[in-house]
Amino acid sequence: MGHVDHGKTTLLDTIRNSKVTNQEHGGITQHIGAYQIKTNNKLITFIDTPGHEAFTEMRSRGSKITDIVVLVVAGDDGVMPQTREAIDHAKVAGVSIIVFVNKMDKPNVNTDRIMNELANCDLTRIDELLETILVIAELKELNANPNRFANGTVIESHHDKNVGSICTLLIQGGTLKVTDIVVAGSVKGKIKRLINDTGKIITKAGPSMPVQVLGFETAPTPGESFIVFNDDKLARKVALVRQTEETNKIRNNRQISLGNLTQDVATGELKQINVILRADTQGSVQAIVQAVNKINVNDITVKFIRATIGGISESDIKLAQTSGSIIYGFNVRPNHVIREAANNAGVEIRLHNIIYKITEELELAAKGLLEPTYEDKILGQARVIKTFHFSKVGTIAGCVVINGFIQRNSKVHIIRDDVVIYNGEISGLKHEKNDLKIAKKETQCGITIKNFNDLKENDIIESYLVEEVETK
C-alpha cells in the first residue's frame, strides 16, 4: 500500500523478477493482483491493491485478507496524502505494518524528513523487507492446515462473455481442487479450472496461494469469504439462505449516526466512539484532538480514526463506513456529491465552526444524553464565474447555480477549496436587472453578500437555513 507512483508494483516486480508494471495502463495498477514468491524455502503471498478502501472493506466483511501491510514510501516524495490514507486503513484493519522507503537513489532525498513524517504517523522504518516479513509471520504464528476443505476470500471477480464468471481467490486454509463445490457469499459454483499467478493451469491450490478460477454461477463480490462443501444440495441451500440474509441486511441497514451511537452507549453496548475529523488548518486539527482527548465519561473513549486538514472526501466516507465512525467537519463543507455518497453509505457528517460545540456534543454522546440540536439545511450551491466591483454595492458575484437553489435573504457559507472562509447572509439576488426570490439549478444570477466583498472566481456560495432537528 502507499501513494500513487511511489513504486509499489515496481517493488513487487523486483521481488518477483517480473514485468507486471509494463502490462499496466500508464504504469498504474488497474486491478487487484496477487502474487506468490519463495524465499528461504518459505512462501510469501503479496496482494497489490490500487484502492485502500477495497482493502478495508474486505476486512470489514470479516475476511482476514492480509496479515501484514508493506507501506511503500518514495524517498524523493515522502509521506503523501494517500500514504496517510493507507496508514489509516491498515490501522483500522488491525494488521502489522512494515515501512519500505523506495527511490533512495534519487536526488533531493531527505531521510531525516521521511523518518520524522513516519514518526508523526506512529511508524518507524524497517530495512530488510523479506526477512522482516518472515520474522513477523513466525512471531504471529501464521500457519494453516492444508489437509481439509478449502476456505478463503474473493480478491477480485468479473464476468467474461466467452467463459462466464472469472474470480481470483486467496486460499487461506485447506486445499482447493478442480471439481470442488464452493459457495462465496451467496454465490454457488463448481471449480472447472484453476490458474496460478504465473498463468499456469493447475489441479489444486494450498494455503496462502492466489488462484484464478472458473466455475461460479455469477461473479461473487470481492471481499466475500468462500468455503468448500462436499454436498451440492447443501451448498445450494446455504447460498439461498445467505441471499435472504443479504436482502434483510440491506432492508435493516442501520445508519452510522451520533444519535444511534448515543443509544448504544446508554444501553452499555458501546465503549468507544470513532471519529474522522477534517478541518481547515493543522492548528484546528491539533486543538480539536487535544480538547476531545480530555473527554473521559463512564469509561467511554473517543478515538480519532483520521484527523487531518482539507475537505471531506469519498475516502473518508468509505473509512467511516467500515470503521463505524462519525465524520466531523470543522470550517469545511462537503459538496453535494460527497453529501449524497454519505447518505447512500448511511454515514453521518456533522459540521461545526466552534471547537467547544464538538467536545460538548461528544461528551453528551458519551453520557448517552445527546439532545436535539440545530442543523444547517442546505438549499443549494452556486459557483462564482466572474466578479464585478461597484462602489455603491460592493462586489457582485456572477454565478451559476450548480445544485439545489439559492434563496434570497438566506444564510450562506462562502467556500474556497472546500474550506469555509466566511459565514454571512445574501443581501441581493438578481437575474440581469430583475430581483429574484429563488434562483434554481443551472440559472445564471448575480449575488451580493452582506458585509463581504472578497469573492473570487470558483468560490462556492452555499445557501442554507438553520433548523432544530431531533437526534437520529
Q: Please, could you describe this protein's structure?
A:
- The chain folds into four domains: 8-139, Rossmann fold, CATH 3.40.50.300; 151-251, Elongation Factor Tu (Ef-tu), domain 3 (Beta Barrel); 258-371, Translation initiation factor IF- 2, domain 3 (Rossmann fold); 377-469, Translation factors (Elongation Factor Tu (Ef-tu), domain 3).
- Helix content is 28%, strand content 38%.
- The chain contains twelve helices and 25 strands.
- Strands 5-6-12-9-8-13 form a six-stranded antiparallel beta barrel.
- Strand 14 (272-279), helix 9 and strand 15 form a beta-alpha-beta unit.
- The protein is globular and about 85 Å long.
- Mean pLDDT is 84; it is low at 24-32.
- Pfam families: EF-G_D2 (PF22042), GTP_EFTU (PF00009), IF-2 (PF11987).
- One of its GO terms (cellular component) is cytosol.
- GO terms for molecular function: GTP binding; GTPase activity; translation initiation factor activity.
- This is Translation initiation factor IF-2, chloroplastic.
Summary of the model, kept short:
The chain has helices at 8-16, 20-23, 52-60, 81-93, 111-120, 129-139, 232-251, 258-266, 282-293, 314-323, 336-345, 355-367, and strands at residues 33-39, 42-48, 68-74, 96-102, 151-160, 164-173, 176-177, 181-184, 187-195, 201-202, 204-205, 210-216, 225-229, 272-279, 301-309, 325-330, 349-352, 373-390, 394-407, 411-416, 419-431, 434-435, 438-440, 444-449, 460-469. The protein is of the alpha+beta class.
